[in-house]
Amino acid sequence: MPNSLFWLISAFYFWFFSIIGIYVIYMPKVLELNGYLAWQIGVIFALSPLMRFVTPFLFLRHLQLTPTLYRAALIVGIVAGGLFFVTLHNFWLFMIPNILLGISFALSLPFVETIALATIGKERYGRSRLFGSLGFILVALVLARWMDEPTIALWLLLATLTMTALLGWFIHGQRHFGQNEGAFDLFKEWRLWANLLLMQISFGPFYNFFTIYESERGLDYTTISYLWTFGVIAEIVMLFFQAPLLRKNLLGILRFCTLATAFRWLLLFLFPTSLPILFFAQSLHALSFALYYSAAISYLFSSYANKTLAQQFFGGISFGLGGMLGSLFAGMVYGEYLFLYASLVALAAFLVLKPAHH
User: Fold this and answer.
1) Model confidence at 179: pLDDT above 70
2) Are residues 348 and 219 part of one domain?
3) How many helices (H) and strands (E) does the chain have?
4) What domain count does the chain have?
5) Per-residue buried b or exposed e for 170-191, using 16+ beta carbons within 10 Å of the residue's own CB
6) Quick check: 108 and 312 in contact, CB under 8 A?
């Protein structure tokens, strides 16, 4: 494997997850400053995950994720970034670039993930993927000082989309792995797909309400930001050192990480103001996100002949449908028992995967 490809894929992850950082952390604030109501912001941010969920189904019978379609998805991402500027002040028109962005994500990331696993391998994958976490952190730190200037976030979003597309364009020349090899059967691994969905739903309370939940219990925003950052640092450390673990039983790792996640949410429910326990709970992000994510995509890569479509459905079912349902779930159950409910959902994810897998 040429070392240049490792660094090319790593750079792609850096810029791709920088996009996610801008979109998730700052775009809601941009919309609020431009007069969007809470329900409108909710609708806008449901569109991208919805597209990530719907898009893979088009590839079961009708389409194939070819290099040409992948390149088109990269261009669509840049177009979406440009449309953010001209549609921002119209709720209905602003849906268009968000839909396009979801489609672009649904096609581009699985294509690169497949090439990464096929060329640099699951052992080195984590060290490449950690650059995405670094991009996410850097965006969080850099943009914080310009939270009240929406145009800066929009320009940075366009810049990161453009950089991602340029790097992705160079990656596309690699051999296309496994798109046309055999039929794709979701039911073959139904327990795993159910686990992926429930795990992401359990993350809804954390992603959407952790800051609000802790601030209402007396923690200041600086401390909460340290907790967020500590979780991402734990994620980066795991991505760097996880290679030996991924040589072991991947389903066993997924079960262990799922159970650790249920324990993590339970700690947030039982000890919401204990800083030592909160930091320990955040350290479990190394298991509940980093190791879990790597083990899941590695298992799907080895389990399905149609490898790119497996990665498309991974994004669609977990971050797409799971992300959307997780947000709705969190909003419905928000209150004192928020993380108890999250823990129970993660426990259900553990139980559905627990029986023998065939």
Assistant:
1) no
2) yes
3) 16, 0
4) 2
5) ebbebebebbeeeebebeebeb
6) no
Domain boundary among 171, 197, 214: 171
Same domain, 159 and 228: no
**Which has more pLDDT, 264 or 179?**
264
Domain assignment of residue 358, yes or no: no
Same structural domain, 162 and 237: no
pLDDT tier, 269 (very low <50, low <70, confident <90, very high otherwise): very high
**CA–CA gap between residue 20 and residue 137 (Å, rounded):** 11
Amino acid present at 275: L
Q: Is 276 buried (19+), middle (13-18) or exposed (0-12) by CB count in 10 A?
A: exposed
User: Tokens standing for 283?
Assistant: 């350290």
Q: Is 8 helix (H, G, I), strand (E, B) or coil?
A: helix
And the tokens for 118? 């096929």
Residue 209, CA distances (Å) to 171, 262, 329, 342 in order: 37, 17, 11, 12
Give residue 92's domain range.
3-171
Task: Label each residue of 292-345 as H, E or C.
Answer: HHHHHHHHHHHHCCCHHHHHHHHHHHHHHHHHHHHHHHHHHHCCCCHHHHHHHH
**Whether residues 246 and 192 fall in one domain:** yes
pTM comes to 0.84
